[in-house]
Amino acid sequence: MPPADPAHPAVAVVTDSTAYLPADVVDRYRIEVVPLYVVLAGRSGREGSEVSSAEVARSLGTRGGHVSTSRPTPGDFVAVYRRLLDRGATRIVSVHLSKELSGTWDAARVAAGQVGEHLVTVLDSRSAAMGTGFAVLAAARAATAGSTAEEAADAARDTAAATRTFFVVDTLEHLRRGGRIGAAAALLGSALAVKPVLHVVDGQVVPLERVRTSGRALNRLVQRAVDVAGDRPVSAAVHHLAAADRAQRLAEQLTARLPGLRELHVSELGAAVGAHVGPGAVGVVIDPTPRAEPAPPPPDDAGRGPGED
């Protein structure tokens, strides 16, 4: 294996904006993020830079407020892939949210065909948020350490397969409107006035259990995380939309009850996923396959930030 160049790894890693990786991690590993589009109040904008989580939460909190999302175009991916190859990358590993939840994976696959399928490996994480993000991070860490594209892709696959995602929403209506959960499940949750605990299985959002109060729902999230983690070393992430206090309580409980916790990321969901789970949503992602983290890449001599020409 040739020695790694941490500043310019030969294997570049790409994901989409629904991975919700911390900004410092994206910068450190030079991960390229392709944004989804969010449509609200008659305008369309890129998630993060043009449409914020707060805007989505406000819109969904008003009577008749509606938010929709759309995938990046194949052209969006082609532009990123070609830029990376022009800068010296020899291979690209592109990891995305579940194709059961979005057409993003398909857009990336089409783009790879235009650029060269021998140059770009496109992976379906079968998850979303940091369920995808931890897989992306595994690939990026492997690439930074000098691994081949195949090895980086295998690291992403192994992590995606092992990672578990659990979350609670105030209402299933937003998931139902977006077609992310069946109408029967949504109706059942509303009729019984319960807080549904959900998880992601084979790339789909599936009801897991029902509890009566928000407090019990948070407790169940913690217990599910503990059950997955056991005494093993794990990484974890806590997500929320307009529920920072609940997310902080969840993070504190995880820190206290996961003896093998190596890293914990707490972040607000972006507009694209937030549009489907709604305000008040809180979730936890557990990755039981953390790898030793290589030294962070040094900055360029010219001080160019990641993603800049």
TrEMBL record:
The Pro residues compositionally biased stretches are 291-300
Record has Lyase as a keyword: no
Keyword field contains Cell membrane: no
Top-rank taxon of the source lineage equals Bacteria
Keywords on record: Lipid-binding
Q: Name one GO molecular function term.
A: lipid binding
Q: Sorted alphabetically, which Gene3D superfamilies does this protein's record hold?
A: 3.30.1180.10, 3.40.50.10170
Task: List the InterPro entries.
Answer: DegV, DegV_C, DegV_domain_contain
Please give the residue ranges the record annotates as the region Disordered. 286-309
Name of the molecule in the record: DegV family protein
The organism named in the record is: Modestobacter italicus (strain DSM 44449 / CECT 9708 / BC 501)
